[in-house]
Amino acid sequence: MVDTITGNSMRPAIFFDLTHTLLEKVNGQYYLYSDALDTLKALRERGYRLGVISNLSEGVTIDEVHSFLEECSIASFIDPHLIVLSSEHPENIKKPDKRIFDRALEKSGLVKAENKAIFVTEEHEHILAARSYGWRAILKRNWGECRPEEGECVFSLTGLLSLL
């Protein structure tokens, strides 16, 4: 479905946090979780648009992040127009601030989240915030157990495929 005013696809958009969600940091180096590539590929094949919402230091650009995603071999799955960085905003707003989620909606062409905007992160505080803004938010547990009070939760990125 295409919005006739903006021309943007109205397909659902999944936004991932980067560190500890798609990438793990080991000895100062970032590595993709072993199931990241296959999961991103499967989600794209299912018609989801994929993006990133990330808190980064002031001055980091979208081009730099895109280059980093290329180094990690996932740039081909992430829509460059759906990269949302805290450093884009003059005040360097960070998750869980509503304005960064609003920016993601704006970039995706979605007027409201209404289950068409999905956020995946390991940060419980960010999950609660996204849900309060109307987003479907899925907690990615890197350790411990998913608890019923946490809502949608997965132990791996592959777990998203059974939820979405």
From TrEMBL:
Question: Under what name is this protein listed?
Answer: Phosphoglycolate phosphatase
Query: Which source organism does the UniProt entry give?
Result: hydrocarbon metagenome
Gene3D superfamilies under this entry?
Answer: HAD superfamily/HAD-like (3.40.50.1000)
